[in-house]
Amino acid sequence: MDLARPVPEPTATVVANDRERVRYAVVGAMALLAGIWVAWGLAWLLGWPLDSLGVRPRQFDGLIGILTAPFAHASFDHLMSNTLPLALLATLTLYCYPRAARLALPAIWLASGLAVWLFARSSTHVGASGIAHGLMFFLFVMGLLRRDRLAVVVSLVVFFLYGGMLMTVLPREANVSFEYHLAGAVAGLIAAVLLRARDPLPPRKRYSWEDEEAVEPLPDEELELPRAANVPVLWQRRPEDDQRGRVIVFRPRPREDSPPTVH
After folding, report:
1. What is the pTM of this model?
2. What is the pLDDT of residues 56-72, one digit of tens each?
């Protein structure tokens, strides 16, 4: 039997489509990060106050922060801490679920900001960490719901790298907006549940052993032991042997004079 390859060779069309998806994911993630960096640079150069860009809960003029808060950061360290997670998570989301990402990303962006405006403590909430938390929970829950190979691998990778986000949705530091983290996580979870079937499942790879003809099982009669009457007789006792019996004489073995062995 010829064993099939563990990973069949992809066709040229599949390779071309996969390269296009990679290009689409990288360009989309870089565009998002470029917007955040440009906005932060302009705010720093022009001296824009963070109050004008952040979310101020339950204040009418703070509604604009639902759109602009991810572009504002309290410091350069704050911006750098969000850059790498957002770049990786956005790239994985756009690559694995290109159709769902078109709705999931803006939904996480707007829903997390709106939840902060409605329920957060009175302060100015800025940063893109809410979106990063939303994308992390989105990818993790998608792997649990879809269970195809790509979804499971990505789910394990993001949990291994950013599983600590599970703890940052709780209040830990006074100057950290855990409300933004929690709102983004809930928005990502809901988006994963609602959009889990928007992208088609990848075709299941078929191997050669699946196409082999099934062997018919043997009937039960052939598996049963034969009866004693049906077993052929290989040796039969002669009648005269029953009358006088038979004695088998064993001749004594000649003794050999050999020197004793020392143990």
Report:
1. 0.74
2. 999 998 899 999 999 98
